[in-house]
Design goal:
Elements (H helix, E strand, L loop, with lengths): L8 E8 L6 E8 L2 E6 L3 E8 L5 E5 L5 E9 L6 E2 L5 E3 L32 E6 L9 E5 L4 E2 L7 E7 L6 E4 L5 E6 L4 E8 L3 E7 L10 E6 L5 E9 L4 E8 L14 E6 L25 H10 L5 E4 L4 H16 L3 E5 L5 H10 L4 E5 L11 H6 L8 H21 L5 E3 L6 H6 L4 E6 L7 H15 L5 E4 L1 H4 L8 H17 L3 E4 L25 H19 L11 E5 L19 H6 L7 H13 L23 E5 L6 H4 L4 E4 L7 H12 L3 E4 L32 E3 L5 E3 L4 E3 L3 E6 L2 E6 L11 H15 L3 E4 L6 E5 L3 E6 L6 E7 L2 E7 L4 E5 L7
Parallel strand pairs: 20-21, 20-27, 21-22, 22-23, 23-24, 24-25, 25-26, 26-27, 28-29, 28-30, 30-31, 31-36
Antiparallel strand pairs: 1-2, 2-13, 3-19, 4-12, 5-10, 6-9, 6-12, 7-11, 8-10, 13-14, 14-17, 15-16, 15-18, 18-19, 32-33, 34-35, 35-36, 37-40, 38-39, 39-42, 40-41
Helix pairs in contact: 7-9, 9-10, 12-15
Length: 841
């Protein structure tokens, strides 16, 4: 019997992408694996071998039909192959010239090639004739083994019988997930748990060809070292118990999240273009034009930000940036790139010369295909699966992970700038931290998009996020010379600061504009460095940068008592754009219009109107798509999935469901535990549907957990007609709502099985959201008509206030911890008021 404990080792796998000639690099860690009770396992032989040399392995006597496994491995776990089938014989010397019978495996492939194999082995099925029963035999591998890649190191060949596992454990790029592949054709199912973190879960092998689809366990990484315990059940019913040690690979924020760093972007003009020619974005070439070095030299003399972001440039310009990055670091200025990919060696150099102040690369608008139509989806190879869960997994694992792994092979930090407010899914896909493209598409409502980022960061850790302000590009309806243009930028900066952003980056305008061709009253001309427009951008950034340096935050997050639940597999990107297919599932939408944005997504409109209202006249005479008030204080948006923990939910006093949800039994149990522990939950019955095929009309009991019974959460059930019934113990309230106490908490459930965006329940649901939020809000109350322009964020020692009206000053009447106070704020004005400390008991 050989030792079945395998030493930890680091292996680098290179995987070819299907859609392009790029390579993905991911780090795979072997882990200590202890077999506590491996029924039937028997190691018959172990031997060191040379590649492409005949292998002779002596086996003990066998009888009748039996199976053994043949595996090979080297230090790097390289793949291997056999080009001629192995066989059994009784001749132990020169088997090739022997007259003894050769017994070939009954499962040998027809072409005699065993193909690519991994270290977990190939199964060999033998039927022994009488003359070979109960006598020693020799397993002959006439061709030896061949390395699938470049030959390296020595190889070990093992032969064994019975159920034996050799797991492959992988930490995803962002260090937030672990996956365990159990590569054994006889495994039927695994019951596994992470004690005190993940309860017992069952993973089954439902495929017809398990050898091509190994058993995969996927779990959320704990914040500490731990052990996964697994009970493995074989196809023949045999069981064995195993443990897998996990060591967290946590994402570490590049600086203290309480700190705020203000950034500006740099890009040089193309000096080779003749005047009159068009540059990018159809605009006429800028005049005068300057090199990137000109902008950087001026910035170094009088910095107006604490972070320099570099856009793609010609090779020689990129090489010159090393010296700039070094000089910036001497003045405590961070650096970052976007849409670039450099070698790991060069990135290591940048980290060294910048004293670790190089913040990696931003992969840009990687999630944008979610709102860009069929052509974009096809270009990104989006699978048309017609299932919400499979489509979600396709986005997270087939799309996001594919990109982040490629960057993580070289960059220690990878961020993302997306106009879709789906930070929860992007962080799952390996992005280290989010910088949503504020002002743009689904991130137009700055407070909404920031709440989604903040909720995702608090869930996945670290609680580090920021805003990428596409102010110049996305406010083209406002002229450069309008005062609202600049007050809007100032208000956005201060709102980000108060909401908890650690990085706040202005995209364009400081060195030259990019959106002049589209900006109102610009003459379709871009502005250059010495223009009043660009000076305004630099002056505002400089003043704000000085402000955050002089006014550090108490913590990196304000007090948040309310969370809006993004239901399981919900694909809402933050905006509804005409005939927009959910998860870009256009084939399904052509068959069933409910796959287009409809009632589930309209529910988010109800939520935004309630918690992130946009005063229509705040930017008058221009429409306001960006600045929201906060009538109930700060609110997080939190993704509900099977990775969410009770600890995540207990941060909040009130949970409110919004749009689509495909409930699972685990999520139902989690919500029950949350309520029993003292939480308050508001939902519609439809939020508990388990369907992932987008069907949400005429639901029946079988479409819900517990066959339609909502107990023990609340004593209600779905009847055969698809309607909600309730016990007499359940209170019937006004506005179509039911209520019941559970443990220390309360459940509020609407009576109609409809989404909040449905016209039948919209008004009632909105009233209950506002009522419960009013009871849960922090002890800050604003009264009077001007309060609809007031945004605020509560910290333990102070409260930040912002007037989102860009045209008028207001006197706000507020109560801070019961103390009345009048706060006078100019247009886009911000202030901080201290809270009175309660006396010590």
């Amino acid at each position: 019997m050989c030792d079945s404990t395998f030493l930890s080792k680091k292996v680098l796998l290179l995987l070819a992408l299907k859609s392009c000639a790029l390579f993905v690099a991911c780090v795979v860690w072997g882990v200590s694996f202890s077999n506590q009770s491996a029924l039937g396992e028997e190691i018959l032989v172990e031997s060191r071998v040379d590649l492409a040399s005949k292998i002779l392995l002596s086996l003990p006597p066998r009888d009748g039909d039996f199976s053994i496994y043949l595996g090979a491995s080297n230090e790097w776990d390289d793949a291997w192959t056999i080009v001629a089938p192995p066989y059994l014989t009784t001749q132990t010397s020169d088997a090739a010239g022997s007259k003894a019978p050769k017994i070939f495996p009954s499962n040998a492939p027809k072409d005699s090639r065993w193909g690519k194999r991994d270290a977990d082995g190939i199964r060999l099925d033998f039927r022994l004739p009488p003359e070979l029963c109960n006598v020693p035999t020799t397993l002959v591998v006439p061709s030896g083994i061949y390395s699938w890649g470049a030959p390296r190191g020595s190889w070990r060949v093992e032969v064994w019988s019975g159920l034996r596992l050799k797991p492959l454990v992988q930490y995803e790029s962002g260090g937030r997930f672990f996956s365990i592949e159990i590569r054994h054709p006889d495994v039927a199912s695994v019951e596994w748990e992470v004690p005190d973190f993940i309860p017992v879960q069952k993973t089954q092998n439902s495929t017809q060809n398990p050898t091509q689809n190994p058993m995969m366990i996927i779990g959320r990484m704990p914040r500490r070292a731990c052990v996964v315990r697994a009970k493995v059940v074989a196809q023949n019913g045999e069981t064995s118990v195993h443990s897998f040690e996990l060591a967290p690979a946590l994402v570490v924020p590049p600086f203290d999240p309480r700190k705020v760093v203000v950034g500006a972007c740099f890009y040089g003009d193309d000096e080779t273009l003749p005047l009159g020619e068009t540059t990018e974005w159809e605009a006429p070439a800028r005049s005068p034009r300057y090199t990137e070095a000109f902008y950087l030299e001026d910035f170094l003399k009088a910095p107006y930000a604490q972070l320099a972001v570099f856009w793609p440039a010609q090779k020689e310009v990129v090489q010159q940036r090393d010296e700039w990055i070094r000089l910036f670091a001497t003045k405590n200025i961070y650096s970052m790139t976007i849409y670039q990919h450099q070698s790991k060696k060069r990135i290591q150099t940048l980290r060294e010369i910048s004293n670790e102040m190089f913040l990696g690369n931003n992969l840009g608008e990687y999630a944008s295909y979610l709102y860009q139509g069929r052509a974009a989806a096809e270009a990104c190879d989006v699978k048309q699966v017609g299932d919400m869960a499979l489509a979600r997994d396709g986005f997270v694992r087939d799309w996001m992970l594919r990109g982040t792994r490629r960057y993580h092979a070289d960059y220690p930090l990878v961020s993302s700038t997306s106009g879709a407010a789906v930070a929860d899914y992007e962080l799952q896909g390996g992005v280290d931290f989010m910088l949503s493209e504020l002002f743009a598409i689904g991130a137009q409502n700055l407070a909404y998009a920031s709440s989604e980022m903040r909720g995702a960061a608090r869930k996945w850790q670290p609680e580090f996020w920021g805003g990428w302000l596409a102010h110049e590009w996305q406010t083209c309806a406002i002229p450069y010379d309008a005062p609202q243009k600049w007050r809007l930028l100032e208000a956005a900066l201060f709102q980000q600061y108060s909401m908890g952003a650690s990085l706040i980056i202005n995209e364009s305008g400081a060195v030259s504009t990019q959106a002049g061709f589209y900006t109102r009253d610009s003459g379709k001309q871009n502005r250059t460095y010495h223009s009043e427009t660009c000076r305004n951008y630099r002056d505002i950034l400089r003043k704000f940068s000085d402000f955050v340096s002089e006014n550090p935050r108490q913590s990196n997050s304000p007090e948040v008592r309310i969370a809006i639940l993004r239901g399981n597999t919900d694909a809402f990107v933050g905006i509804r754009l005409g005939k927009q297919a959910v998860w870009s599932q256009f084939d399904a939408a052509e068959r069933d219009p409910d796959w287009f944005y409809c009632e589930p997504e309209a529910s988010w409109g109800v939520v935004k109107e309630t918690f992130f209202p946009l005063p229509e006249d705040a930017v008058a005479p221009y429409s306001n798509a960006w600045l929201a008030a906060s009538p109930f204080g700060q609110v997080d948006i939190v993704g509900l999935d099977d990775f969410l923990t009770l600890e995540d939910l207990r941060r909040y006093k009130l949970l409110i469901f919004a749009g689509w949800s495909a409930m699972t039994p685990r999520q139902f149990d989690l919500l029950t535990q949350y309520v029993e522990g003292g939480g308050v939950l508001l939902a519609s019955p439809i939020h508990f549907s388990m369907r992932t095929d987008r069907r949400f009309r005429a639901l029946r009991p079988a479409d819900f957990p517990n066959n339609g019974s909502f107990a023990p959460l609340i004593d209600t059930k779905i009847n055969e007609n698809g309607h909600l019934e309730h016990d007499s113990t359940v209170e019937v309230l006004e506005n179509g709502c039911l209520r019941q106490a559970r443990g220390k908490g309360w459940v509020y459930l609407m009576q109609k099985v409809r989404f909040p965006g449905d016209s039948e329940v919209r008004d009632d649901y909105q009233k209950w959201m506002a009522r419960l939020a009013q009871e849960t809000r922090p002890p800050i109350v604003a009264t009077g008509e001007p309060s609809r322009y007031l945004f605020y964020a509560v910290y333990s020692d102070y409260v930040d206030f912002l007037n989102v009206d860009l045209n008028r000053a207001h006197d706000f009447e507020v109560q801070i911890d019961g103390r009345p106070e009048k706060i006078a704020l100019p247009p886009a004005g911000w202030t901080r008021k201290m809270r009175e400390k309660a006396p010590a008991p």
